[in-house]
């Protein structure tokens, strides 16, 4: 009996015939040992929030009780008048671990055998990256309006009331570099009026705002960074004491409206035009403003009882809260 090899041309005439007749070539399917690279939206929330009270999180429903340092009263001393002693009573804030996100997927044994990469590891890594983006987007959306009233609006500044940081109805036009830089320095001044420390300040901008800034003289004068930070969490440098991060996860808002949507990196130009979501935000603050606690409480692999393959699933529980609204500032721009 003749042997037919893969890729060989199969003759349909003498010296042998086939029944039924064959023609053309047989081309085997080749499974590549490489996977196409995938790109992810930079996750920034974990970089700008503090995790001082993360502790041990066992599951949804846990809470972390945070003690606030009370204000100690300062009194004028009068000789012979005696002293009045204050009894400091710390107030508390509860950080609820009430948010949870999960992933669950199946890896078929046949698919794993036909592909050289360890698909379970590859898919788990992708799930972890997608989890960061999802949590980042939800946390920024939940906290971006948490700034103190004196740190936002057309008359921002707890002492001067002199900084225009924009409103939903009248956002600040930062299409020019001068206006963009002026808005950022105004955010810094607003934090200065709240006596916020100069170290550990952050600034979150979207790619459009970054492009405006990079076209200004700040590109050489004030923007510095290292080759790793931007790959890790979107950090692009420093401006006026701010560590600057660029992210696609900032919320978008209606022009002249009150509707905002979370920015998960999937918004398209067509979708934005349809929903008139053209207002953007710049968020500035100090790392003490927001607390964040997160943990993958369960990751497990189980065999599929009805097929040859594995089920992989994992859950991440977390909580986020603005604990110092005076250390957070917001600008609404377009």
Over all CA atoms, what is the radius of gyration? 28 Å
Order of strands, widest sheet = 5-6-4-9-12
User: What can be said about the biggest beta sheet?
Assistant: 5 strands, mixed
CA(first)-CA(last) distance: 76 Å
Mean pLDDT: 79
Overall 3D shape: flat
Q: What is the total tally of β strands?
A: 12
Q: What's the helix count? A: 8
Helix/strand-derived category reads alpha+beta
Helix and strand element order: HEEEHHHEHHHEEEEHEEEE
Percent strand: 15-25%
Residue windows where pLDDT falls under 50 for at least 5 positions: 1-16, 219-233, 267-273
Helical content band: 10-25%
Summarize the structure.
The chain is an alpha+beta fold and 334 residues long.
What labels would you give this structure?
single chain, 334 residues, alpha+beta, 5-stranded mixed sheet, 8 helices, 23% helix, disordered N terminus
């Amino acid at each position: 009996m003749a042997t037919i090899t893969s890729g060989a041309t199969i003759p349909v005439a003498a010296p042998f015939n086939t029944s039924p007749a064959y023609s053309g070539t047989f081309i085997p399917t080749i499974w590549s040992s490489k996977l196409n690279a995938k790109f992810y939206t930079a996750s920034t929330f974990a970089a700008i929030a503090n995790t001082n009270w993360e502790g041990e999180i066992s599951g949804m429903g846990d809470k972390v009780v945070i003690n606030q340092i009370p204000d100690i009263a300062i009194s004028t001393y009068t000789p012979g008048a005696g002293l009045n002693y204050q009894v400091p009573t710390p107030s508390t804030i509860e950080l609820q671990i009430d948010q949870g996100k999960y992933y669950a997927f199946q890896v078929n044994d046949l698919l794993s055998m036909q592909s050289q990469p360890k698909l379970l590891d590859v898919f788990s890594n992708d799930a972890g990256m997608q989890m960061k983006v999802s949590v980042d987007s939800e946390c920024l959306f939940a906290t971006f309006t948490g700034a103190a009233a004196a740190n936002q609006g057309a008359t921002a500044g707890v002492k001067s009331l002199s900084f225009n940081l924009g409103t939903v109805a009248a956002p600040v036009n930062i299409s020019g570099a001068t206006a963009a830089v002026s808005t950022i320095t105004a955010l810094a001044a607003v934090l200065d009026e709240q006596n916020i420390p100069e170290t550990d300040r952050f600034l979150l901008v979207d790619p459009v705002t970054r492009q405006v800034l990079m076209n200004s003289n700040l590109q050489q004068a004030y923007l510095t960074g290292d080759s790793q930070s931007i790959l890790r969490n979107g950090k692009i440098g420093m401006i006026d004491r701010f560590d600057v991060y660029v992210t696609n996860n900032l919320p978008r808002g209606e022009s002249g409206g009150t509707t905002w949507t979370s920015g998960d990196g999937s918004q398209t130009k067509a979708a934005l035009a349809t929903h008139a979501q053209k207002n953007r935000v710049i968020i500035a603050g100090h790392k003490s403003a927001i607390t964040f606690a997160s943990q993958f409480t369960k990751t497990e692999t189980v065999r599929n009882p009805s097929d040859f393959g594995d089920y992989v699933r994992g859950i991440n529980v977390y909580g986020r809260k603005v604990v110092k609204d005076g250390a957070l500032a917001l600008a609404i721009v377009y």
